[in-house]
Amino acid sequence: MTFRFSLLALSLVLMTTDAMAQDVAAGEKSFNKCRACHQVGETAKNTVGPILNGLFGRKSGTVAGYNYSDANKNSGLTWDDAVFTDYIKDPKGKIPGTKMSFAGIKNEQEIKDLTAFLKQFAADGKKGG
Q1: 30 closest CA partner among 40, 43, 19
Q2: Residue 32 forms part of a structural domain
Q3: How confident is residue 126, by pLDDT bands cut at 50, 70 and 90?
Q4: What is the rounded CA–CA span in Å between residue 13 and residue 84?
């Protein structure tokens, strides 16, 4: 009885984990919403927005060669999962005065997928970061 219960419990955990797993391919598709202003990868350049290589762990407003708003430079934020999640839902709400004009992404799974996609890119733009 205990063995069957343990197997059932393990199955439920695995099913829940699979349903909540991050999907890099879906994150890449979601990144299409960002491409008008941001780039990632080894050939990425600052455009309307800064490059997003090596985003997680980086202090806000610090990409060389990009002209950030004072609000972004002085936000004191360091990008991690929680900060990015709050920001991408409502950029102007998280950093009032930011130049980023984007309505935001509200869907939690889409944010997780986008996060997984962005986390692939190290500061040098190579995948595996």
Answers
A1: 40
A2: yes
A3: very high
A4: 27
Query: Could you tell me what percent of the chain has a pLDDT over 90?
Result: 81
Q: Which domain does 76 fall in, by range?
A: 23-119
| Residue 87 lies inside a defined structural domain of this protein | yes
Residue 65 inside a domain? The answer is yes
What are the pLDDT digits (tens) for 27-47? 999 999 999 999 999 999 999
Phi, psi of 64 (to 5 degrees): -60, 135
For the stretch 66-107, pLDDT in tens is 999 999 999 999 999 999 999 999 999 999 999 999 999 999
**Is the residue at 13 inside a domain?**
no
What's the structural domain count of the chain?
1
44, 125 Cβ separation under 8 angstroms: yes
Domain CATH for 73 = 1.10.760.10
